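Changelog excerpt

This revision adds worked examples to the README so contributors can see how folded entries look when concatenated. The first example is reproduced verbatim below.
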Amino acid sequence: MRQFGCNLNRFAKDHLWEVRGLAQLEILCKQLYETTDTAVRHQAEKALVEFTNSADCLSKCQLLLERGSLLAATCLSKLVSRTSNPLPLEQRIDIRNYVLNYLATRAKLAAFVTQALIQLYARITKLGWFDCQKDDYVFRNVIADVTRFLQADTSHPLTKHRKIASSFRDSSLFDIFTLSCNLLKQASGKNLNLNDESQHGLLMQLLKLSYNCLNYDFIGTSTDESSDDLCTVQIPTSWRSAFLDSSTLQLFFNLYHSIPPSLSPLVLSCLVQIASVRRSLFNNAERAKFLSHLVDGVKRILANPQCLPDPNNYHEFCRLLARLKSNYQLGELVKVENYPEVIRLIANFTVTSLQHWEFAPNSVHYLLSLWQRLAASVPYVKATEPHLLETYTPEVTKAYITSRLESVHVILRDGLEDPLDDAGLVQQQLDQLSTIGRCEYEKTCALLVQLFDQAAQSYQELLQSTNSSPAEATVQEGRLTWLVYIIGAVIGGRVSFASTDEQDAMDGELVCRVLQLMNLTDSRLAQAGNERLELAMLSFFEQFRKIYIGDQVQKSSKLYRRLSDVLGLNDETMVLSVFIGKIITNLKYWGQCEPITSKTLQLLNDLSLGYPSLCCTYSSVRKLVKLTAVQFMLNNHTSEHFSFLGVNNQSNLSDMRCRTTFYTALGRLLMVDLGEDEDQFEQFMLPLTAAFETVAQMLSTNTFNEQEAKRTLVGLVRDLRGIAFAFNAKTSFMMLFDWMYPHTPCYTCCPPPGELLCSTRYPAYMPILQRAIELWYHDPACTTPVLKLMAELVHNRSQRLQFDVSSPNGILLFRETSKMITTYGNRILTLGEVPKDQVYGVKLKGVSVCFAMLKAVLSGNYVNFGVFRLYGDDALDNALQTFIKLLLSIPHSDLLDYPKLSQSFYSLLEVLTQDHMGFFASLEPHVAILDHIVTYLFKQLTRSTKKRPASMATDDRFLHIMRQHPEMIQQMLSTVLNIIIFEDCRNQWSMSRPLLGLILLNEKYFADLRNSIVNSQPPEKQQAMHLCFENLMEGIERNLLTKNRDRFTQNLSVFRREVNDSMKNSTYGVNSNDMMS
């Protein structure tokens, strides 16, 4: 503590700062953490950020720490983590020792301060794991330091973090886990008074320690908590002894039964991790023995369920049950000695849990997951022992169905939250039930038919009765809603290879009942309707479509026979007419209900998808197009017939998103028989032509209704985007293009200066979109749809944008694109500072679309960009300069924080570096981009001795910058080499391409880097490492021809393998940071 203590004494003498400065900082902290005034909190946060960045922050933190300040711990964590101007080793050692002593001598610190200081100690230890002082790894004595303490009472590279974590795992983690288990055994053998807060807290921390050891990221792939039931714990092989010894597993089961419910959830969490240990840790016999002990422990808990009423215990136990099947095979489970008794207890537990649906509803997922996996395994189990699922699975299915139906009345009576309102949860459970219900499907179908008939009959009687209460009808509608959802789910669970004619006939029984109910509810829509029931119907139709609509379905299926007998639906065409009839009915009566409208249009979109080639006469989509109802939609897509297409002043602009889906489906249907029939296309476009003319008239005056104009325009561009997306073929897309550009440019007069073509008769519609951008650039609800339409129009999907050699349309299209990007970009930059919580919606989303638009047009291969410079047209320069302006206005953190923006930026950057390198000097590259940059630089440098025209001045400036700052290329070389040697380089081919160019550009630096790496090795390994580098460049010529690159890639593969082998047993190693310096 020498330096740290001296600093403390020196600054303690500064009484004025201690009195005023500390008091002021504490006031700011209080304002930051306690005030409810946003403005005050913002000002306090700003002032504290300035404090943490000040030069004397460290010394002031020491004074703050004496007063038990959380701010001090936070600031110190930031200081020890920084990579630029890092703290000296001596100072970090002093801080670490001071923190440990501080914790030991101040037992009554606030809990959050103690936690922050512990995190500070852990951060210092982790970041200094490889730091040496006199050949001693001074930060690795963690256990010894903490033991002495108990007896007394991220900005680093990912590579280094992984190395630290791996070294800690190999050297210390198992010892820590063993220590925690030993201490737990000692605690369980003593008569602890767990009512005492200190003893209770000690046992809790021991359990947390054990859990954290088991939950360690052993192989550097942090698990996704959303896929918890798929997790496997990658325990190292060196831990085998702990799990082959049954006493470890028995310890936690014994603890569960002996400690109070407040601590037992932690025990169950540990058991969940132990149950998830990777299968390959054991051989077959060892795994069977381990599984037997695990199942015995589960049976013991089920037989003594006193602690399970606690919600936390219940949840963790459900997770434990799910792991039984996610990590073990059904064939292994049935061989466990007491399997019949255990599966009976699990089934009873599941049925009871489902019946008490209001208790811990989030835990049901794990139980259904268990039974779903068990049911799915039945066809594949080869063991001779009975699995008994044919007995217990129907009980689980029945419990789920009946409990959902019984919940409807209770929810309405008590005003509880309805599970049907959580669409994600319902869909997740239905996906699981679809597999469970198909096991012993006869029983499932019989139950559903019985319950559906009862509910439908009661509902019909209530509708016919004059004195029935609305509440009774609502209950029956809720029950029918659940049944329709469940019927759709079990039909969707049909597996073609495992299905029988009898099961198809059962599906037919269920489908007939749902369609009869639909006829009843549709007949009443003029008076009343039930939104939840309609959404269930749409879910049913979607499942029915996936299974029984399409050319792959046998039309001789017993389902179609049943539909014919009961409803007169003799073939697929008649069934499709039912689908379209339902879609039109929903759009007519539910046009103002966004959830129903969007799901209805999604169903229409799915029906229009994936039609086969035009030579396939029997395609389902061809049958669809021939329906009278579909022809009606193609000829009457106006607000008069479909209310959601109207301009409603009460709705939000974002509510019009469904229009794109509608017109995408109509566009696909139109294309089926469109061919080259321009008259049919013009007829289809009449409503959109009228809308364009309406907007044009509004914008031509100064007194138009702005909101009406916005709504009309947004609806129009969303419609057009849907059509443009659907028109993938050249013929149909050219019709749309000609509609957008109804006149051809004039070739008879001279073009104005700086333009390739005269535009006196230029398009009628594009200026309207440009004008909208100029007027409403600050309103993303208006500009984003316009920008997305333009991005779709310039996207050469399926080579649909192919112009004749005499056509200027490609150039004209790019000029309009450039104009829109420039107009939007220059205006959006005038907005100034945008609040952080609004910056994506207001600015970055539009910028991202502009990047995607520019990338699409630059890579579309329908514009020769060389003519722009040749003829002095500034369209290309304007677009690229606007891109640079927009890029410079975006903080680098935002590029990383918003994935869509990042993706559009790097995709555009790759295109630009390939063909437009003159516009770049330094941007953070991806591998492919780096390859383009390096290749460009090498080619220019090799030509630098030749006479170059004045037009290449831009390239000269670029090379000049690189010569002035060679460290940029050197940094890239060391980074790529570091990745190849130290990281898990999965795409070695891609990494090798830029590396050769970097070496040829930096031959002297590469030689120095090679010598540094060789000298860092132990003396006996230096010759082998030197040979590795010699072999890397063997046969490599000084060029970037493909043949030379391929040879280098082969050499690099051998080099990486030999270097890794050489370094495996080295105690010296190579510090990746040394290479980066």
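The second example, added in the same revision:
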Amino acid sequence: MTAPHPPQEAAISVGAPHPVYGHAPWTLQVGGCGAPGKRIYFTPDFLDHRNHSAVFSDRLFAQEWAKYRWGVFEEYGHADDPLYPSYHRTDTRTHVPTGCSNVPVVGIPSSCDPYHQACHFHPQPLRNIKVTSSLLFLHHLPNVNQFCDETTHDSTAPTKHNALCGGRSAWQVMSQHNDFKHGPVGAGPVRNTQPLFNYIRPAAHRYVIVVEDTAVMNAQKRWDLLRKAVRRMLVYDIPPGEKVGVVIFDSTASTTLPLIQVPDALEDRQRLATVSLPRTPSQVIERSKCILCGLEKAVEMLEKDGGSAAGGVIFLISSGSPFPLSSYDLELLRDLVVPRHVQVVPVLYPMTVRSPTPTSGVEQLAKITGTQWYAVADEGIGYDSKVSMMVALMRALYSALRMFLPNADTLPLLVHQQEFPGGIGSVSQGQFVLDGTLGGEMRFSITYYDLGHVGNMIVLIDPLGQNVDTLNLQEEDGDVNMIFVTVKNAMPGRWRYKVENRADSHQSLYIHVVATPASNSSSLTSTPSISGGQYTNSPTAITLEAWTSETIVSSNTSITSGPVVIYGKVWSGRGPVVGAQVEAMVQRLGMNSTGSAFQPLVFTLHDNGACADITANDGVYSRYLPVLATGRYTVRVKATDHSGRAALVVQDPAALSPRLLSGHFVSSGRRGRAVPSDQEGPYCCGSRMPYTRTQDAGMIAREDIVGVVDVLEEMSPYPPSRVTDLRVIVNPAAMQVTLHWTAPGNQLDHGKASHYELVFGRNPLEVASGKGTRKTDVAVTEAASKHTEYSMKPWHHHGAIYYIVIRAVSHVGLPAPWSPMASFFVPSPATTTEINTRGSTQAGATGGSVGNLEAPRRELLSTRDLLAIVGAACGFLLIVLVLSVYYVVIVTRRRRRQQEKIPKSDSMSPPEPESETDSINKPTDKDLVMTETLKEPRPLSPVQSWPASKLLNEHERRRPIDGQSSGPVEGMHLPPDLGVPANPHPFLYHTMNGRYIEDNIPFDGGSLISTQPSDSMLVYRLDTGATETARPAASGVWNPHHVMHSPSQQQQQMVPPQDHHELHQQQIPQEHSATTLPHDRRRRNVTQV
């Protein structure tokens, strides 16, 4: 297939791996359905069949070529994609892999829950012999060689192709292309289908500058400014080695500079530029000029050099046609350049019309040959022309040149430009930023109308705050009215400058800063190759490339395909820059009714995958051109780091795996057999680029000029743009369905719409066309490009899959097209089965043809929900408080009743507040007598306890008279066993005779302390340490000589026989404790019987 003109850029780029997609081929697509792609990218490893001979590279390339050439999109799902998931739910309530095929595909999912969004599907080649479509889904199956048509296409599957092409099949979209205007290729006899590739070796570009030389250029200073702009292009802009020639024309045409190679030496280039144009223009009137003569001379010059004009570029500088060109004139121009494959870039200088309107002039050559065109408005005061005209012409010529220069990323980049009007202040100051990818050479230039307008002070301050010695670095070139300050190896960061401004009030000083990419060897990086080698990546600067989808705005669909979109691609090499702030400035040419320039319209471009942007995070920022009045407009785009939010997407090691398929599997190398890939990474393209690693982009600033856009007629209001990212979140517990989308505007994606309409139902074909249950009172809460959500509660439809679409309505009642369908499933209230129709394991996450596969987003609670939660929490705390008070009251009463049932004689008197040491050293009360009568002893209850004095009296009452037999007496109880058990308790009492008495009674300090110890009491200390050595008390050391013992008492210091007694090991509750234990020890007084 032969294109009508040579492409401005290559269709295929072979280079280093992509930071996300790795070696897998992918196509950059920025337009809608049917729009051709920008370029196909892959690596040399893809062409090396030795590494993957069974990967079916031919069909994989056919898939990418279909995207690039015919504007179709992939028909497979993407893991973790919020809009195009790997699995989706069907009406049969089963989950199937997302795709399009003529018969069901047999395969197995990867080791995961098939409802989960990260699942992959692995088809089995030997069991899918009958599968013949689609190349956009399963190109690697052995018999797949077709695209899906109307009979095999699944319009309800959540694929990117369905979302952007309105559910049409791939063949339906492709049949609209000129390649198939005579029907499908297979409709006629089979021809040779072997593709033919022509490798074009890069050669020196050939440029011819064609300049109008008539009386219109002789007014004011127009010719002088034109000569300076052309001189700058020849001396400073066109790289050495390229070929350039100059032709001038009035009523005839002549050559002033034959086609010659640009020399390397600056002096030689300056001498070349001096003879390129005459010093004074011709006096031939403008109406007598012959544009065709000038183009014919340029084509002749190109054909003499090499025998062919193909690939040549003509820069046509003219004031334009004095009257609209007839169709006959346009046909002559087309027949001159199109068959010879020559491209023409018109530059209208000067545009003298006060309020220019689109006309059928030489600017039509841009559309015919596939280029841009530029315009410079006439600005003059008396006999002078403003220096702004020269600056605008220089910018236009440089922007036009960059479209054709090879390796434009290595050329100087414009990072700053600023106008400082004269007559305001004596010193003009500003700042600019050099990011880390720049710094090879920075050139700071001042453009003036007259040299006297620039004072002696030119100050440059580097990022460290040091002044640069500009005096010895300054260069003056009066032939282009510029002063240069060149800094080698300029450090990155924020620079500042000050310039003495002496310009007149009607003139200005212009500051321009350009910088080349850093080229130090330390910045070189290496990327591994599949074949074992290394890709050496040269430093790649952050670049901005801006363009528009059309150069003409018209409601006539035969002239334009739809609303014009402005694009700004911010990349570093092949990696996108995400999070940048990209702004477009649209400036109307001419003057308003007051004689002043029109105010520019500035708006932000987005990389969010909504409205005009079809893929998020790919580094291509876009937005629709707003509705404009009839006229001609220049478009500029500026990119900054968005206050440090911009980041570079860098290489992910997982993306460098030998995965060369668009998902699913890689070949094992044996014919007819395939094995699952162990390293399945992201593949192009889905709703977003799934990058995983970034690095700070630093401070960046870039600018680019798009060209001129013509608005042919007064445009009627546009409707809002289409919602492209509708997804649904279901909350089954609350019976709530919440819609999420990015808001369009009132006109396209600008402003704020009036309201929304939505339609839902169970029939997908009817819902897609807007038929079903309709809701028309959905209020608008957010302006264009903002995230919006709307909840429907309660949802009364259960147990089935529902489809839903939405659209915005403008303030004048114009509705937008219906959005792609989203589907969701809400279970019946009694069921707990899964509700996701798109694959999430979390209940409620759903999607549709742009359905939701991401984990459900945490919902923002309404005021009513917050009040309900707070009220429930307060009620719960109140109930806990009431139960606690009730428990305390009941327990207190129960204990009081138990104490009242105990006789006073048996109850324990509360101990006096003396310390343990005081109770030991206190003299014995001699008046203490035993008043109890002899009676049958009553065992202690679990809640009773006796003090030591009472225990001693009870013992004296029950013991036999001294001197009698110590054996047991009938009717008498033996004293308790005080021996050491087999498993001693940690609490042991160390006695004087080395024996231990076990204490199994949970006690509090002082619970067994007697306030009146008897003479027969022995004092023992609780040893809580690891040794048996008695430790001194905290206050008052116990001395055994302080206690007088009778002989009979001394004889009874041995432990009684180990007979059990009713008083043995009675537990005493802690509630009866009156004192506390010290932190380092515990003591208690006991008696030795």
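Reviewer comment on example two: The chain has 15 helices and 50 strands. The CA atoms of residues 118 and 1079 lie 60 Å apart.
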